[in-house]
Design brief:
heteropentamer, A alpha/beta, B mainly alpha, C alpha/beta, B: mainly alpha, MetI-like fold, flat, C: alpha/beta, Rossmann fold, 2 domains, six-stranded mixed beta sheet, three-stranded antiparallel beta sheet, 7 helices, 9 strands, binds adenosine-5'-triphosphate, binds magnesium ion
């Protein structure tokens, strides 16, 4: 048996690289005996890394993660999901009511409300950046849970939101909301999620960490080839969907789930390379919003020794 | 008829008593529940209630049946129950112990009552991030959350019950020269039992409510996790199915405590 | 105003408490009802006052209550039944308010009944500040305030200690002497019955049947502790009731 | 000394009473709190407690002072208090009303008690997504959540209190020919007041606990929102500062209810 | 075993309840203590039994308790003080268990005391199934079980109704006649005092001082209701106490 590892995961397509690496034996090949720990939300996952309940995980850069890094408990060691011009990425949504009242593109955001889960979440960052780019003032509504946000959006109580493509398309397809733009148009090369681990792992378990990243990258490559670049052919794509279905939407039939999985496919960075420009921008934004201490720098958060920094 | 037997001015004393003693009429509850459910069914079918507002009761029933058929109901229920039992047992046992101490010793009382008063209004969900650090993300943190939630109300009801034990019984024990420990065991404890048991109802209800909070922390199975997942997908049928299960769980435990009271407190008649 | 009980029978879910009791209660006299524990004395009094309806038979009032009588049939309860959140005065005004008597009119009545029960100094006191004897005096004052045609007293002294009981008995006799009222006085206590009753009705053990009705001709004012005629009567009653009382006491309650 | 006055075998009767009446010793609580705080301060300073586990008490104090200086404390506190007051008032008023009805009418009792029993164990946070649809994300949903949370416990304590009103007082009222409405107003309601007020303590504590849940929905300000944000940023100083504020709020309201009891129930002595 | 009270004074937070009470309690006799409400009778009894410590003075026991006496000073309380969750037998075995008496030894004692109090049929009954008179009999049986040197009775009959009181008084006299015990019997009730007491100690209103000690020479067995000598004594006591009792009753309680 190899080194025992706990990998934190959410049941989202964006975590597919880990699932692929596990199912296809890439972890085993690196001598890693991986067990998944599933979470309902990203925030507790970050805390679990700090507490040592999980060793590696993938999540968006949030205020909580930065705060834990500042306490010397977590480190970002690589990049995962990225926005990339030309690839179907996160969408900007408007509620039907707002759409009818004129919110037909992100240009009309001024004076509108924007749903976020919590202050300092990626939704907050995107909304803030997009509205700033359009010179609009928006009010942010913290609603904690994606479910609550969807409810609020459907009933027209918030005007706009941004979300990963498969949820956006499913909602828009049902006629409940309207898609009014792409996040990638405002935040090209946005480093949506990162790979991170405890500071201890990053500093003292270099071999294990590198092995994890190698296996993870191989999984990412398979995923990109099958569903993002679609260079591996239809059969490989179908097989990939089937693999991911074991983890995501497992309680829905494959036909239904498959569509969502395909819709949700976004680029996972090759070799876990990290877009430093985007990370720096995000940290600066946190500081400007006074969500984190001014003394925090990119170095507090990132251990650059593992992956290529773009 | 009596008019013939008595002078004209004889009349029965008017009745003016009765009332102010509501008696539970069996069956009324069934009618209320049925009416509510039929109303919801009718409303959702006619579209008078949108499917965003309320799920169709029949759909909730179907969801429940599917859940049961798939066997997942037992998976969810068994893990939730074991969390409730372990966490609740820890919290309630500790609560009864501390409550007894507060009820018996001046210094413990003086030192701990304010601490308990300060702990009571703290919402346990606010402490979730800390619980991860303190107890990890596995069962320990769920047990701890439920234990903490049941701990404080049990303390309060226990020392209240001890305070209410008839002091003449205690004086009686002393007057017969019973030892301190005998008095605690044979007089104070059984005398406090009714109060402790009725406090248990509240504690267990709080435990059930906290299941949802506890299962916010890395739980894959469990009624709370099921509800949370349904909520995050805005899947109303499953949300209501889960809530219904919790509600039934609450009524069942309260009924079990009622049975326990009947058995243990049969001396109350 | 007289009262007549005609063949009263009363049952609680199948348990017969009173059986075929017929009784006449003449105006201006005190009727004492005695009987062992649980024989239905309180039930009988509730039936007389219209607080409960008999399973069979009826209670009739003959004649009309005198003018100015606000509540013809008025109770004095064993446990006083004072509202603890109202002062002595407030407890009395309670029963006047519903008849629209307020302000000066109420004050006049309250002052009068408090004076008659020697409570004038305690009008503002709360029940918890009063001794048991005083509490029962307030309850009597409250009953007097509605100027009843018939007073129904359910063991009014049995919650009091022996000395207070003695004092209050003297007060009741004094009240009756100054202004005779019709009274139905339920008690366990043979000494009380022979001191206060013009007639004594004796009930049997449950189901309560009327066993005996005894008239006492000695005027209330002439009865004292240690009067040999009363002592003899009391001893006679006790001999008649002792077996019943013992049996009633030895019964297991099925609660 | 008494040996000389009495035969040799005279000795005082041994004392065997006392005890079993703990009295609160003032000051003990202060010692307990001070010890706990000093321990935490010492532990975090020496590193024996990591900064992931517990914030340094002095840092929490600094955070609180900063919050107060910046004026934000009042902003947070005032919106939370207004939510608590409005939601609590609605829930408690409705709860007392329904509780009185249950206590007075057989059919209401039979129909509603099971409904209340079924509502009690439902965790309010599970219903958050629904509250968004039902009441929106503005103040209404916060009021509704707190109102619903305080509603059921108030009902239970109110009808319990009405049931406990001395029935001989009611019979007394009837025997004096008081109207039904007079009896309810002058006898049942004041008689139930002690029970209702002591139930209020629990209801208000639940209201405070639910502030956090209520402010999960689109609240920018409020102690609950402050705590949630601190939690999501894993900012322990602010998290503890917020929890401390809630705790103080809870103790304060309980103290206010104590005052209210002293005033309204001075007849209990 | 005799008891001697030497200059007992007792205060509760500044309120003097008893002042300079000295009293001798001889073995084999019943001493009745009477006095108005709140004069400190119960307090005095608690001091005698060692449940409370006097502010000044002392209570001495002279001689040693007889062999086989498990609890020299044993109480019978006004409100029975039975554990509601134990049966009649269990309530008695409660006071034996701590002395290591269990099993057959305990059964023998329990059977004996139940027979003496005519309760043999009720050994398995729970207190709630018993009438007040029976409950007090159980309490007396429990006191007898520890074979006390002195029985301390605090108004043992005052929670009972008049007829049961009469019955139990006869039982107590019967118990004493068969096997005389030392008793201190606190009561309000002058009739009880003259029926049961070999000596009667009269306390004044609070602060309780010893006003009088009266010896009664008539043997207990010869005292009956309506005995003119007892009636005369009772009337004399009542005349002496009436003013005090009235004053005590009219006092506002400062709770
Ligand atoms: N509301 C009721 N429902 C059922 N049974 C009742 C009710 N009230 C009284 N009883 C029963 O009726 C019987 C007579 O009761 P009642 O109170 O009239 O007796 P009593 O003569 O007044 O007794 P006591 O001397 O103890 O006051 C008792 O056995 C009692 O248990
Ligand atoms: N533990 C106590 N603390 C303070 N005051 C007390 C205490 N016990 C009794 N008292 C007061 O001492 C006085 C005498 O009380 P005690 O119970 O001895 O009187 P009593 O003669 O037995 O009265 P009663 O005839 O009503 O039984 C009363 O005024 C009472 O309020
Ligand atoms: Mg009665
Ligand atoms: Mg006393």
């Amino acid at each position: 048996a190899g080194t025992k590892l706990n990998v934190g995961a959410l049941r989202f397509t964006s975590h597919a690289a880990s699932f692929v690496a596990f199912e296809r034996g890439y972890f085993d090949a690196e001598g890693l005996d991986v067990e998944f720990k599933f979470f309902q939300a990203a925030q507790p996952m970050a805390v679990a890394i700090a507490s040592g309940d999980a060793d590696y995980a993938v999540t968006a850069i949030s205020g909580g993660l930065v705060s834990l890094a500042e306490k010397g408990a977590a480190k970002v060691i690589g990049g995962a999901l990225s926005e990339e011009p030309g690839i179907d990425g996160q969408k900007i949504l408007a509620s039907n009511a707002a759409y009818e009242a004129g919110l037909t593109s992100a240009k009309m955001l001024d004076g509108r409300s924007w749903a976020i889960s919590q202050a300092g979440s990626s939704f907050h960052y995107m909304g803030s950046k997009i509205s700033a780019a359009e010179g609009a003032t928006v009010s942010f509504k913290p609603l904690q849970k994606v479910g609550a946000i969807i409810g609020a959006l459907k009933s027209g109580q918030v005007d706009a939101w941004s979300i990963v493509p498969h949820i956006a398309k499913a909602l828009a397809g049902g006629g409940a909301v309207k898609i009014i733009g792409n996040v990638a148009d405002y935040l090209p090369n946005y480093q949506v999620t990162t790979v991170f681990t405890s500071a201890d792992n990053a500093a003292n378990k270099r071999g294990q960490t590198e092995a994890f990243l190698r296996a993870f990258s191989k999984g990412a490559d398979d995923f990109n080839a099958a569903l993002v670049d679609k260079t591996a052919g239809d059969e490989a794509a179908a097989e990939m969907v089937k693999l991911i279905h074991k983890y995501v939407y497992a309680d829905k039939p494959l036909e239904k789930a498959g569509k969502s999985i395909r819709n949700g496919a976004m680029r996972i960075n090759k070799n876990a390379s990290l877009n430093m420009a985007s990370v720096t921008d995000q940290i600066d934004w946190f500081k400007s919003e006074k969500l984190i201490k001014d003394s925090i720098t990119v170095d507090t958060l990132v251990d650059p020794s593992y992956s290529e920094m773009m | 008829m009596s008019e013939n037997m008595h002078p004209n001015n004889a009349r029965p004393v008017p009745f003016r008593g009765g009332g102010f003693r509501p008696v539970a009429k069996r069956g009324a509850a069934i009618i209320v529940f049925t009416t509510l459910i039929l109303l919801a069914e009718w409303g959702t079918r006619t579209g008078w209630i949108t499917n965003l507002t309320l799920p169709r009761p029949s759909d909730v029933a179907t969801t429940l049946i599917d859940l049961w058929r798939s066997g997942l109901l037992w998976t969810h229920l068994s893990v939730s129950l074991s969390r409730l039992v372990v966490g609740g047992t820890i919290g309630i046992t500790a609560g009864i112990g501390v409550g007894m101490m507060i009820g018996l010793f001046s210094y413990v009382r003086a030192g701990l009552i304010p601490v308990v008063a300060a702990l009571f209004p703290i919402p346990k969900i606010a402490l979730l991030p800390l619980f991860v650090i303190w107890f990890g993300i596995d069962e320990a943190s769920k047990y701890a959350l439920i234990a903490l939630g049941t701990f404080t109300p049990t303390i309060v009801s226990t020392y209240g019950a001890v305070d209410n034990v008839d002091r003449t019984l205690v004086r009686m024990g002393q007057s017969f020269g019973l030892s301190w420990w005998s008095i605690v065991r044979k007089i104070v404890l059984p005398g406090a039992l009714p109060g402790i048991l009725s406090g248990l109802r509240v504690s267990v209800a709080i435990g059930i409510i906290l299941l949802v909070a506890a299962e916010m922390l890395g739980a894959e199975y469990g009624i709370g996790a099921y509800i949370l997942q349904a909520g995050s997908l805005y899947d109303l049928e499953r949300l209501f199915a889960g809530v219904l299960i919790l509600s039934v769980l609450g009524i069942t435990t309260s009924w079990i405590i009622g049975l326990l009271e009947k058995r243990l407190l049969n001396w109350r008649g | 105003m007289d009262l007549t009980l005609e063949n009263i029978t009363h049952r609680y879910d199948g348990l017969t408490v009173l059986e075929d009791v017929s009784l006449h209660i003449p105006a201006g006299q005190i009727l004492c009802i005695i009987g062992p524990s649980g024989c239905g004395k309180s039930t009988l009094l509730r039936l007389i006052g219209g607080l409960e309806q008999p399973s069979a038979g009826q209670v009739l009032q003959l004649g009309t209550p005198p003018a100015g009588c606000l509540n013809p049939l008025t109770y004095v309860f064993q446990d006083f039944a004072l509202l603890p959140w109202r002062s002595v005065g407030g407890n009395i005004s309670l029963v006047l308010e519903d008849h629209g008597i307020r302000g000066a009119a109420a004050d006049k009545i309250i002052d009068d009944v408090l004076a008659r029960t020697k409570l004038s100094d305690f009008r503002a006191a709360l029940p918890r500040q009063l001794s048991g004897g005083m509490k029962q005096r307030v309850a009597i004052a409250r009953a007097l305030a509605v100027n009843p045609a018939v007073m129904l007293l359910d063991e009014p002294l049995s919650a009091l200690d022996a000395q207070t009981r003695e004092l209050l008995m003297e007060d009741l006799i004094g009240l009756w002497q100054r202004q005779p009222f019709t009274g139905v006085y339920v008690t366990h206590n043979l000494a009380e019955a022979v001191r206060l009753g013009h007639r004594i009705a004796v009930l049997s053990r449950r189901p309560g049947r009327l066993r005996d009705v005894i008239d006492i001709d000695i005027p209330l004012g002439e009865r004292h502790i240690g009067d040999p005629r009363l002592e003899a009567l009391q001893t006679r009653l006790w001999d008649a009731m002792k077996q019943e009382a013992m049996a009633a006491d030895q019964e297991l309650l099925h609660v």
